[in-house]
Design brief:
Elements lengths: L1 E13 L4 E3 L4 E2 L3 E17 L7 E4 L2 E3 L4 H18 L5 E7 L9 H16 L6 H9 L5 H4 L4 E4 L12 E5 L7 E7 L9 H11 L3 H22 L2 H20 L10 H15 L5 E3 L6 E6 H12 L6 E5 L6 E3 L5
Parallel strand pairs: 5-7
Antiparallel strand pairs: 1-4, 1-14, 2-3, 4-7, 4-8, 5-6, 8-9, 10-12, 10-13, 11-12
Bound molecules: (3R)-3-hydroxy-3-methyl-5-(phosphonooxy)pentanoic acid.
(3R)-3-hydroxy-3-methyl-5-(phosphonooxy)pentanoic acid binds next to helix 2 and helix 5.
């Protein structure tokens, strides 16, 4: 009852920000993302009666019952798995990310997609990719999208039990192999407000929440899907950038405020707008953290990475492209 898998982080082109049902992790809106190629979680899980308690080790650090990372995330997720299977066997989970954890690089998305895939294999649950995306959702909303490769839509669904709330692939990576995101890592520190807490507060208190969810997001989903179909880079970039700013406007207007941006974030936002005016075609997006992801085409990626490195507040630059979904591997971490 041991298995390992890998999954990549995804970067939202139309953001998810807020739940309508906490238990089933059902979102207020749909969302669209790109699964990356180089931001990977590698996870091994073993269910065995020899474990008296669940053991969780992420990037070499151990978490137990009583730690937030276990209680509010992996512990809850394992509870869902135990309810589903009717088996109460404890598990050991070891997971490594090759990128900064909990700083707006969707580590929970990659982590829970990989964990769902490994659990499915270890317990021989026989779930298909759609069912796996629904299981991953119970760990972290955005993880539902990392199950699939390439460009992905997470459907909001209408049902209260979540039976129509899952992710599906819009296009495989080969549809647009020249698409790039250049990630400006402006801080590797853990963020102060986790997405889960921030979005909950936004739903409850942001004066812009309702109009964002009802008027802005549905239009952006349609525009982004059309732009992806036509490989229209300008429309895609413009819409994704506006969508990120709208989400952060909702977050910033929350009480207490959810402000993820730092000085490096602002530097890159302004730089991207200036570069665009000069004719270098690029757009930015920002998730629940201070990193800026600059969307561009392959021909401009190296130049953009070089320019980003010239700024003071930059800790790292990563170039990524449309990448693969979950994969089972024989490479066990213990
Ligand atoms: O799935 P969570 O709880 O990590 O929330 C992700 C929220 C954003 O990254 C800000 C947006 C998104 O759609 O990924």
């Amino acid at each position: 009852m041991k298995a390992s898998s890998t999954a990549n982080a995804n970067i939202a082109l139309v953001k998810y920000w807020g739940k309508r049902n906490k238990k089933f992790m059902l979102p207020q809106t749909g969302s669209v993302s790109m699964t990356t190629e180089d931001l990977q979680s590698h996870t091994t899980v073993e269910f065995d009666p020899k474990y008296k308690e669940d053991v969780l080790i992420v990037n070499g650090k151990e978490y137990k019952k009583g730690d937030e990372e276990y209680d509010d995330y992996v512990g809850l997720f394992l509870g869902v798995v135990r309810e589903m299977t009717g088996k109460d066997i404890k598990a050991k989970i070891v997971s490594n990310n090759n990128f900064p954890t909990a700083a707006g690089l969707a580590s929970s998305a990659a982590g829970f997609a990989a964990l769902a895939a490994a659990v499915n294999e270890a317990l021989s649950l026989g779930l298909d990719d759609k069912q796996l995306s629904m299981l991953a959702r119970r760990g972290s909303g955005s993880a539902t999208r990392s199950v699939h490769a390439g460009f992905v839509e997470w459907k909001r669904g209408e049902e209260e039990d979540g039976s129509d709330c899952y992710a599906e692939q819009l296009f495989p990576p080969e549809h647009w192999p020249e698409f790039r995101m250049v990630i400006a890592v402006t801080s590797k520190k853990d963020k102060k407000v986790k997405s889960r807490a921030g979005m909950k507060q936004s739903v409850a208190t942001s004066p812009f929440y309702k109009s964002w969810a009802e008027n802005v997001v549905p239009n952006h989903i349609e525009a982004v899907k059309k732009a992806l179909t036509e490989k229209n880079f300008k429309t895609l970039g413009e819409t994704a950038e506006l969508n990120a700013l709208a989400m952060h406007a909702v977050a910033i207007a929350t009480k207490p405020p959810v402000v993820y941006w730092n000085a490096g974030t602002m530097d890159i936002i302004h730089a991207v707008m200036d570069w665009r005016d000069e004719g270098l075609e690029c757009y930015f997006t920002i998730d629940g953290g201070p990193q800026v992801k600059v969307m561009c085409l392959e021909k401009d990626a190296e130049e953009i990475a070089k320019r980003i490195k010239e700024f003071d507040n930059i800790e790292d630059v990563i170039i990524t492209k449309p990448g693969s979904g979950i994969k089972i591997t024989d490479n066990h971490l213990f």
